[in-house]
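Input chain follows. Return structure tokens only.
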Amino acid sequence: MTDANQMANTLLTDFCAWLAGERRLAPKTVEAYRRDIGFFFSFLAGHRQSLVDASMLSGLTVADFRAFLVARRLGPPVAGSRTLARNLSALRTFFGWLEQRRDIACPALALVDGPKLPKSLPKALSVQVAGEVITEAGRAERTKMPWVAARDEALVLLLYGAGLRIAEALAITGAELPMADVLRVTGKGGKMRIVPILPAICSAITRYTKLCPFPIQANRAVFRAKRGGAMGARDAQYLMQEIRSGLGLPASVTPHAMRHSFATHLLAGGGDLRTIQELLGHVSLSSTQIYAAVDEAHLMAVIAAAHPRA
């Protein structure tokens, strides 16, 4: 967008302020919306050869939206089906906001179909491999620094034993210490949930904090980087990369795979979807139902391998 298109700039700024202030979305999520709607406005300026205004937005046709998706598909940069689906979802949210807050309605958007997405199941680890990952994380010989190995073991245990997102685990501060048997977690969209903490996790965190050479204050992150700052998501990703290399595991073994494994193993052990939904912090049960498919795939594999008529 150019500075000359003042209305488009204002709409985008106000929309993102609403996402951050009222929807309470994470900064990275807001930035993704800003980028997607920015792409759309830039496309419109060239496609319609005019500045974006209320009349243009309300008068957009199905063909206009399809042309945008085609342009995104062809690039640059080339966009895959998942990116196109995200772009379309962002547009639906934006135009919903436009109708509610600016009285600008565009009926055509409801008639636009999104790209078909391949169904992909979470890549959960087996119980045995999950145990091997935790053991490798806590192996002092891997890091040559006992406190770092203790930190890594505690972090991986939190991801697998409590089903936390990596951002949720890294956001824990010293105010939560000593770790109790439950933890209040603020997840996506500011949604609060209570997560039980296993004794093994409490013990691992206690051991780590005793070895950590940096003071862990109430307002500082519990998990610290080697130089004393807060541990970041990239640090956790690098940790899992080290573990994968040491154990010869595939690239699908990521911090988030530990959370997937938590949910999958709970379901396989008899947990119900509603409980797992609450533990994971999913707003909708449909987000959790994918784990039923994971368990179904496991059961089908067992039958195929063991049943005499398979």
